[in-house]
Amino acid sequence: MASEDVKATESAAVSTIVNLAEEAKLAREGVKAPSHAIISVCKSLIAGGVAGGVSRTAVAPLERMKILLQVQNPHNIKYNGTVQGLKYIWRSEGLRGLFKGNGTNCARIVPNSAVKFYSYEQASKGILYMYRQQTGNENAQLTPVLRLMAGATAGIIAMSATYPMDMVRGRLTVQTSNSPYQYRGIAHALSTVLREEGPRALYRGWLPSVIGVVPYVGLNFAVYESLKDWLVKDNPFGLVQDSELTVTTRLACGAAAGTVGQTIAYPLDVIRRRMQMVGWKSASSVVTGDGRSASLEYTGMVDAFRKTVRHEGFGALYKGLVPNSVKVVPSIAIAFVTYELVKDVLGVEFRISD
């Protein structure tokens, strides 16, 4: 009898210890899981932000030249091309002139890039999950079309979240030392636009921006990821080393993706810039620098398209395409590769192509 009591006591003790151990394990997992998830999100956002800042700063002079070509007065051409325009800025404004607006650009692109890359990862997971549920194939992978959808979703989210900064950046970029009115910085530009034009002005040109970002960002991700997958699986040019692509090859994939996306979406970018100038009293003189004026009144996106083509021809929709093409090739390539390299350094396991 005593023996049975001892066994029962031992059994109860063992059971208690096991239960306590399980509770401790669950408690630890319960505390660590959210912490690990938050850290992972932060690392992904940091990687995306660094990628955006590095890539845009590298091509800042070309970015400014592109915007100046897009919005200049067609009746008083001051910038005849990329090289001539850059030389003119160098002579009249110096080195700082080439990077004017880059601080605002980075202040916008860092959060934009962070949100865009993270949103793409999450959208890819969600779209892939729904695709597998719909097809009943648990081993299904993302197709180019699904990647396009995920990229478009990420682009819309990122653009909408940071659009006021983009609008202000456009105005800071086009003003020159001869402009009659000067924005003193990001905060001053934001407060001035709010005071003189109202809060809706901060989202002027948002519609063509969103329409343009769908093919632009969507194609960037779709082309980049599809090219990488094709090169890794088929290895047509012998570029794969240990099932990995070299940095140079990934840069080439990014350049190809950026070229395709920006060429298709560029006319919408021109219209967006012009609509952002509407309501700015000194817009024409800021661009021309000599006090001349030009009509900058548009009732909407369609009206802006119609007036631009009617008064300046179809070619006006591609003003600034050359500096933009030269800018996009390294910019997109650097952004993708920097993002992946920073994630590797930070130890983030999830990759875009997963």
Automatic annotation (TrEMBL):
GO terms for biological process: transmembrane transport. It holds the Pfam family Mito_carr. The keyword Disulfide bond does not apply. It is found in: Mitochondrion inner membrane. It is a multi-pass membrane protein. Keywords: Membrane, Mitochondrion, Mitochondrion inner membrane, Repeat, Transmembrane, Transmembrane helix, Transport. The keyword Nucleus does not apply. GO terms for cellular component: mitochondrial inner membrane. Solcar repeats lie at residues 39-126, 142-230, 245-345. Belongs to the mitochondrial carrier (TC 2.A.29) family. PANTHER family: SOLUTE CARRIER FAMILY 25. This is Mitochondrial carrier protein. It comes from Arabis alpina.
